[in-house]
Specification:
about 210 residues; alpha/beta; Metallo-beta-lactamase, Chain A; six-stranded mixed beta sheet; 5 helices; about 20% helix; globular
């Protein structure tokens, strides 16, 4: 499975938007970069679908442009005017060459879902590898309206329950992707993020 971050060269604030190439070309989140559809077209001219981890602006700002450019179908957990398919908990969705389980992971956002496959995890903002607060396992912020640290902690627990040991790569909504080594697994990163979230301290000093 080939995964490309099509917003990697962004100069403005955006999420990581991942093109997953393969039998079912898919984009995980759309980001906010004007012209992101042109970056996607450098890799494929047949984008089948866009799947959303959640609908915060930095993840959907250029969604319409991508859908229009490729006539792609939209998969999302919560309502959206252009949604073609609802992503219910424990449903499955095809991304590239792999089947992913939809795991409902709210806390950072009420509509947040993660995608757990055999070898990869698309975790959105519920857990990231590095984000300026922590360098080796961090969690989504929960200090804004509609967010909940307690619910995010439950979501991290749920994610660990659904995570097979065969998952060796984590693609988060912000920061760098993580690829397992002999010394550290994806599970290790999530458990570290969970432990930090459970301390219930402000994530950032100005929170």
């Amino acid at each position: 499975m080939n995964v490309v971050n099509v917003t990697a060269d962004a100069e403005e604030f955006t999420c990581n938007a991942y093109l997953v190439d393969g039998a079912v070309p898919a984009l995980v989140d759309a980001g906010t970069i004007p012209g992101v559809e042109d970056v996607v077209s450098e890799y494929t001219d047949d984008l089948d679908r866009v799947v959303l981890t959640h609908q915060h602006h930095d993840h959907v700002g250029e969604l319409d442009a991508v859908l229009d450019a490729f006539d792609a179908e939209l998969y999302a957990y919560s309502d959206h005017p252009r949604r073609d398919h609802a992503l219910g908990p424990d449903a499955e969705v095809e991304l590239g060459d792999e089947t992913f389980e939809v795991v409902y992971t709210p806390g950072h956002a009420g509509d947040h879902v993660s995608f757990v496959g055999e070898t990869a995890l698309f975790s959105g903002d519920v857990v990231v590898y590095n984000d300026g607060a922590y360098d080796d396992g961090s969690f989504g912020r929960t200090d804004m309206a509609g967010q909940s640290r307690e619910r995010l902690i439950e979501s991290l627990d749920d994610l660990l329950e659904h995570l097979p040991d065969s998952v060796t790569s984590m693609y988060a909504g912000h920061g760098d992707p993580f690829h397992a080594t002999e010394d550290e697994s994806v599970r290790d990163v999530i458990e570290r993020a969970l432990s930090r979230a459970e301390e219930r301290e402000p994530k950032y000093s100005d929170d």
